[in-house]
Specification:
Blueprint (H helix, E strand, L loop, with lengths): L5 E4 L3 H12 L4 E4 L3 H8 L5 E4 L5 E3 L3 E2 L8 E6 L6 H8 L3 E9 L6 H8 L4 E6 L2 E6 L2 E6 L3 E5 L6 H10 L7 E2 L3 H18 L6 H6 L4 H17 L21 H16 L7 H7 L7 H14 L5 H14 L8 H11 L1
Length: 343
C-alpha cells in the first residue's frame, strides 16, 4: 500500500528495477541519476523506464531528475549507485533527507560503513540484493532473474521501520525477507562478489566459469580468503542462492565447496544476465569497476587482523591493469589466478 514518497538515487540496474516495481505498485517514486538521457527517458510520457527480460515486461513513467535539478525532502531514500560513488552520492543526497528519515543502501559491498558517518548510523539501513539486472541504455533495464532480497537494521534489531520497509519491498519481490544479521549477508556477497570479479577478467559467462573444473581452486581460494576475514571480524556469514558460507570457512571441505559451486552454477544458468556487472563495466561500458570499494576493503580489514589475502590482492591488481588497458580480458587471466592457488 502506498505510503511515504520514495527517492531512488541511482536508476541503473538495481535502482531502476526496484523503483519501477514500486511505481507499478502505486508508490510515489522519484528517480535521480547522473545520465541525463536516462533521466529524460524515465520522465517522458509515452517512453518511460522499461523493464525487460524473463521475469517481467512493463514500462513506467515517473519524475526523474539530475542531482543538480532536485528539490525537496524525503523520509525514504534508496541509494543504488555503484559502491565507489557512495560517498559523493550520500553527500549530495544529504540535503534531501528528512531529519527522521533514512537511507537504505541497495548496493554491493560494505557501503553502509560509508553512508553512516555522513547521514548518521540511526538514519542508515542495510540491504542485500542478488537478483540479476543490467542497465542496457537510456530508459531500459534487463531484469535477468530473481535472487535474494534481504533487509536489516545495522544493529540487528527488528524495528517498526524495518517491518514497514519489508512490507514495502514485498511489492518489489514477494520473497523479500528481514534479517537480524545484515552484515552476514553483505560479507557472504563479498565472497561471491570476489568470484564475479575474477570471472570478469575473462570472457566466459558466470555459470560457464564457475563450472570449469580447472578453476575450482580459484573459487575455493577466493571464498576461503573472504570468509577468513569475515570470521576475524566476528561476522557469521549467511548463505544465499547456492552460496554456502560453511563450505568456505576454516574446516570446510572441498566436497562442500564443490557442492556450493554447483548450486551457484545452477542458479546462474537460469538467468538472462549471463555476465557480471563488473564484466559489463570492463567489456561494454569501458569504465572503472567497484573493485577499490568492494575488494580492497577486505584486504585492508584482513591486514588489521594479521591475515594475508594474496589471491584477492593479485585479483585487484589484475582488474586495475584491465581498467588501464594494460591487460586484455581473456580466460587465461582466470587460469593465471587459479595457478597462484596451486603454487
Amino acid at each position: 500500500m502506498p505510503g511515504d514518497p520514495i527517492l531512488v538515487w541511482g536508476a541503473g540496474a538495481i535502482g531502476g528495477t526496484v523503483g519501477a516495481f514500486l511505481v507499478r505498485a502505486g508508490h510515489d517514486v522519484t528517480f535521480v541519476d547522473i545520465v541525463e538521457e536516462h533521466v529524460r527517458a524515465i520522465a517522458a510520457p509515452g517512453r518511460g523506464l522499461a523493464i525487460r527480460g524473463p521475469v517481467a515486461e512493463f514500462s513506467v513513467t515517473a519524475p526523474a531528475f539530475l542531482p543538480s535539478e532536485l528539490t525537496g525532502v524525503w523520509r525514504k531514500v534508496f541509494l543504488c549507485v555503484k559502491a565507489h560513488h557512495t560517498q559523493a552520492a550520500t553527500t549530495a543526497l544529504l540535503p534531501h533527507l528528512a531529519s527522521d528519515g533514512y537511507v537504505l543502501s541497495l548496493q554491493n559491498g560494505l557501503c553502509e560503513t560509508v553512508i553512516a558517518p555522513i547521514v548518521g548510523r540511526e538514519r542508515t539501513m542495510g540491504a542485500f540484493v542478488n537478483f540479476g539486472a543490467d542497465w542496457m541504455g537510456p530508459g531500459e533495464v534487463l531484469y535477468g532473474n530473481r535472487g535474494a532480497v534481504v533487509l536489516g537494521e545495522l544493529d540487528g534489531r527488528i524495528t517498526g521501520r524495518l517491518v514497514s520497509l519489508h512490507r514495502l519491498m514485498l511489492d518489489v519481490d514477494d520473497r523479500a525477507v528481514m534479517t537480524d544479521n545484515i552484515w552476514g549477508y553483505l560479507w557472504g556477497k563479498l565472497a561471491y562478489g570476489a568470484m564475479l570479479f575474477a570471472q570478469a577478467t575473462g570472457q566466459d559467462s558466470i555459470a560457464g566459469a564457475l563450472a570449469n573444473p580447472s578453476l575450482f581452486p580459484l573459487w575455493l581460494g577466493l571464498g576461503r580468503e573472504v570468509m577468513a576475514v569475515a570470521a576475524a571480524e566476528g561476522v557469521r556469514a549467511e548463505g544465499f542462492n547456492g552460496f554456502d558460507p560453511d563450505a568456505f570457512r576454516p574446516g570446510g571441505t572441498e566436497a562442500a565447496a564443490k557442492a556450493s559451486i554447483a548450486a551457484m552454477v545452477a542458479f546462474n544458468r537460469t538467468s538472462a544476465k549471463t555476465h557480471s556487472g563488473v564484466w559489463r563495466d570492463l567489456a561494454v561500458r569501458k569504465r572503472r569497476t567497484e573493485v577499490d570499494a568492494q575488494l580492497v576493503p577486505v584486504s585492508v580489514i584482513a591486514r588489521r587482523h594479521g591475515l594475508a589475502t594474496p589471491l584477492i590482492d593479485h585479483l585487484v591488481a589484475m582488474i586495475h591493469e584491465i581498467e588501464d588497458g594494460r591487460r586484455p580480458m581473456t580466460d587465461a587471466n582466470l587460469l593465471e589466478l587459479a595457478g597462484l592457488v596451486a603454487a
